[in-house]
Design goal:
- The protein is globular.
- Strand 4 and strand 5 form a beta hairpin.
- 74% of the residues lie in helices and 2% in strands.
- The chain is an all-alpha fold and 520 residues long.
Amino acid sequence: MDSNTLQILIAMVIYMAAVIGIGVLYARRANKSSEEYFLGGRSLGPWVTAMSAEASDMSGWLLMGLPGVAYWCGLADAAWTAIGLAVGTYLNWLIVSKRLRRYSVRANNSITLPEFFSNRFREKKKTIMLISAAFILIFFTVYAASCFVTCGKLFSTLFGAPYVAMMIVGAVFVLLYTILGGFLAESASDFMQAIVMIVALAVVVIISTINAGGLGQVFENAKEIPGFLEFFGLANPVVEDGAQLVEAGKPVFGEASKYGLLSVCSMLAWGLGYFGMPQVLLRFMAIRKEEELKRSRRIAMVWVVISLGVAVFIGIVGRQLFPTAHLTAGSAENIFITLATSSLPAILAGFVMAGILAATISSSDSYLLIAASAFSKNVYQGIFKKKASDKEVMWVSRITLLVLAAIGIIIALDEDSVIFQIVSFAWAGFGATFGPLMLFSLFWKRINKPGAIAGMIGGAGMVFLWKLVISKLGGVFAIYELLPAFIFSGVCIVAVSLLTKAPSKEIEEDFEAVKAGNVE
């Protein structure tokens, strides 16, 4: 190991030690009860709520996946995705956060998403709880796998070690940390990691832009690639034998593709996913006071807009500085690492690399913890053993964490996995399964239990059907599966609710009380 690599490793170890320290600090409080472990006792302040929500949401794809898309095919896909995410973030904080915080207390002080949906409809047979918990387990396992892929690519690129071994090391670290501290440790460390992520992005983009000759030079060079710098055009790398062709030291691109309204809507649809994202929705439920959500929204939006914009630009400046360094879509996701390690002193590059680790940890611990709570709290205690003690529930949760992490590791074994693609599927799954249900549950009094069940199953089923079958038809059917699945879920909710018995008087009274601001 040379001196530079050693310095990078030291910086990352210091960061990881700080993260573990936070876990140890909160471990005693986390183990007081399942409410403390899974929701932090509803004690989060506005800054931690905002920053931890966004850090847990963005994950490693912000630093690797999104820049990789921009590096590979230019501005359009990455920029419209970023715009959709920014708009979705704002609307989620504006429309959902206050009503959900209030309603989750009214619904028998619900501390998980499946529990909220179940209590919202006052169900005796926990059908909604079981279905929602099952989908959380499925999609969050996929999500966790994307984070493990990020760890594997990061460590193998930095240290030249085998991908699989490095992926497993990263997964084990995340697992141990999540088991140790629970929700409070996760939220506190996510706050720190959100700061690390945005600082890492800013440092790399500023230094890289200077090295490229300034903003003007970056844009001039980007314009030479057909469609690379267009909002309504797409660059087309010419690929042969799985890698982009290089001629006279330059990457070869074909004619630009048109980027029409359908493609724009497809990428903007990413914003719809926020209404069904458990890791974000839980922060709304966990904040200590409903009145503080307005401040949290402002903090979150500043962070999101800056981070997304910088991440997209990193891919563009990276294509100028290292035009032939990454010749596949999977390899393109390493452009942030390439820029950081080549532009910064080794010790500083190490802390910047910790930004990627921060993004990965902040998401994967959220995914694993929520998925484990879905099984231990909502399935094991909620259905199979209703008299299970808090201590027993937490032990079941930790065993579940081990199982889910093992499955995630198996999914992540493929070194050629593209992080952006893995995340996009899981994101669509959550958005279509829970997004319409959340909106109708909070704002439509007529929704009933059959409608809720139809919406979840219809949305999730359409994600799989569209992704695996319908999208293969091409043309208008090649849109992002979240958009048609979200619409179909909403149609299912309305149609089935209107065709079946209206909700009980007690459920309607709950709705009206929450609408009026009464949570008692």
